[in-house]
Each structure stands twice: as structure tokens, then as C-alpha cells.
Here is the input.
Amino acid sequence: MALQLRYWQHPNGPFLDRVYINGLPTPGKFFIQKARGGRLALHGDQDPGDIERAMQLLIAELGFDPSGASGAGQWEALKARCTAPSPAMSRQSQVRAGGGAGAAEHLDVSTIKVPNHITIKVDHREPEAVIAEIRKAPNTTVEVCTLELGDYSVNDQLFIERKSVSDFEASIIDSKRLFDQSERIKMEPGSVGIVLLEGDWTQAQRMLPQQVIGAMSFLGAIQGMSVWQTTGPVCTAYTIVKLATHLCNGLGYELGLRQHKPQSLLDAKCYVLEGCPGINAELSRRLIAHFGSIAAVAKASEAELRKVDGVGPKKAQRIVEVLGATE
Here is the structure.
């Protein structure tokens, strides 16, 4: 086993910096962070047993117990064992130093995870600066062509109109082209329409702020377009690739619906029941108090469930459908 340590600088300050540990045979992510009083602590999103095993492996491999000492010297010694920060970590330092809108131009399109191949069609009139950035994305093909709808298209479903602030003004004041495009995208079955407004719209020269807001409101509320702001070509390219990736591959992982972790056995039982439609935290406790266990709730009939305060006919039927044995 070869452990690798990676130092990560947190954008909100050095007091949240971490050292990530790669190469452990236990699942999930582990990292070391300074705790109160300067002591170091090992963290992970696993159960305490896995964290304890990871701790023992860390001691055996490196001869280093992160919880065994305190002080800046121990933290610096740990950082000295780390490999050089990855480009993404270096950019984090740039973001911290620069901040604001300029930080978005340090985004790296090549770091986006694209599980399955995607093709992004780009209108030939789009700036090469954006196209060149999109080409850096992994597992992505850029097809430059003439588009009838949008400036960028994915699967003939996602249509993106990119407008600099001056283009945005011209396409509303002079040609009305943007509204025509949004109307046509709206008519496409199953389409997703997005306007990327590139730059600071408060610096518009030909439209008052209330007119810009009115145009964006019309595009969103009436035309059904999402209006996003990007800072420049790099941010625009990053946004387009991220949108295309989500459209074609989804989020890439299952999104946890409940964030709190149960602290006691009763909390754990209630936590499970809260996953059922119509059962909130209060009702889950009533059900456990009445039946004593999740198994008993699952075996209960609709009539038995209705004896619990807050369970009506429809809710009882739904609980039986979800928890009851399949026929």
C-alpha cells in the first residue's frame, strides 16, 4: 500500500485547510485537519470503525499519528509529506488572492468530469476564445457549424444563446433577434433554453438597468429561458461544458435527500421512517412509540396504522404500499 497525501487550501481561510489521504483500502474520503487548540484530527464520512482502521493504517504506513500531538510544527511536518498541490489547488490560491468576478476566469474546463462522451455544436460565428476553451474539456467533441437555433447546442435539446453585453443590447434594440430565438426555442418540444450574458450588465451603454432587468425578466418569466451571467470566455466555456455534462450524464452521483445523521437508536429508526412519503419527524416518532419497531410498522394493516394520531386513510394506504410486503 502506498499512501499519498495532498494538501488542499480552503477558499475561506487557512483554518479550514486539509490534508487528504489517498490509497487507504477503506471506502470514502479521509482528511486531516487542525482542530481546536492546534491538535490534528482525522475525519471521514464513514462509520467510526472505518475511521479507526484508517488511523491504524496511517500510523503503520507513515509512523505518524495525527491525533497524537499538537502545535504548528506537527501540522507543518504533515504538510511537508504532501505532494505538490494539483493545478486545481493552485487555482484555489489564485481565487483567494483575486476574489470576485475575476476568480471565475481561473476556472479550468479540463477538470470537469465527463463520464460519457458528449458533442457540443457551436455556431461558426462564435469567438475562438470560447471554442478553444471548450476543446480542453475531456471526452468532448466540438463541432463547428451553422446553427439555426442558439449559439451552442447539445443533442438538439439544450440550446444556449451567448451574448456579450453589447450583443445583448443590439439583439434587443436593433434586431429583436434574441426574442425571436427565445420564441423558437420555446416551441421546440422538450427543449432547454439558456441565455448566457457574458460580462457586467450594469455597464450597459444603450439600455438602462431597469430595461436590462425587464428584458431578462421577459426571457425568464414569459419565454421560459434561464438567464445566467458569466464573467468572460473561460467562465462561459466552463458553464457550457458543465451544462452539457449534466444534460447527457446527469449529476453523476445520487443526491442525498436528508442531511442530518441520527445520533441514537431512536433517531435512526425515525430517520428510516422519514424516508416514506407523508411521514415527517413528528409522525415517525409517534409510529415508533406506538408500534415499537420499523418491522412492526411495516407489518401493520391500514386499520392499525390509522390508530396513530396523524395517520388518515390515504396516508395509511401509502405507508402499506411502500413498507408492506409485495404480492
Summary: Strands lie at 4-8, 18-22, 30-34, 40-44, 118-123, 140-145, 152-154, 158-164, 192-198, 226-230. Confidence is low (pLDDT under 50) at residues 86-98.
